[in-house]
Design brief:
- This protein is 53% helix and 6% strand.
- By secondary structure, the chain is mainly alpha-helical.
- It has one domain.
- Helix 1 runs antiparallel to helix 2 and helix 2 runs antiparallel to helix 3.
- It is elongated, with a radius of gyration of 22 Å.
- The relative contact order is 0.16.
């Protein structure tokens, strides 16, 4: 495996990273004070999303892999597919993470607010 830093590939990498930045990928989700989510876990999940996208973008653009001596085979199409899958997974994960963390907490539908009260309590 080798890296090819051709100008077209670097421009494509810059476009992909710019698109990720426009989608809000480089800004961490804001955890509210009344949120049930822990800030450190959200930061960790967000950093995994960013790393996943960076590896996918690098795999799809600058990785070059040729195997074989007699009849060399280029594995670049496989790296492009892998990169697209990694970037797609990263964007879907990041959008769901932001939607879950930044949305207000939903009511659980219980009248008493007690999670152990299933509506079978005696009524006055």
């Amino acid at each position: 495996m080798e890296f090819n830093f051709d100008l077209r590939r670097l421009l494509l990498l810059a476009v992909l990273l710019g698109g990720f930045a426009c989608l809000g990928g480089f800004t961490a989700p804001k955890v509210g004070p009344d949120s049930p989510h822990q800030s450190s876990r959200v930061q960790k999940a967000w950093s995994y999303c960013v790393v996943l996208f960076l590896f996918g973008a690098a795999s799809a653009t600058i990785v070059e892999h040729t195997v074989g001596h007699m009849d060399p085979t280029n594995l670049r199409p496989a790296y492009i597919v892998l990169g697209v899958l990694l970037m797609t997974a990263s964007i879907v994960w990041l959008r769901s993470l932001k939607q879950t963390v930044e949305s207000p907490p939903k009511a659980n539908g219980l009248a008493s607010g007690n999670p152990l009260d299933f509506g079978f309590a005696a009524r006055p």
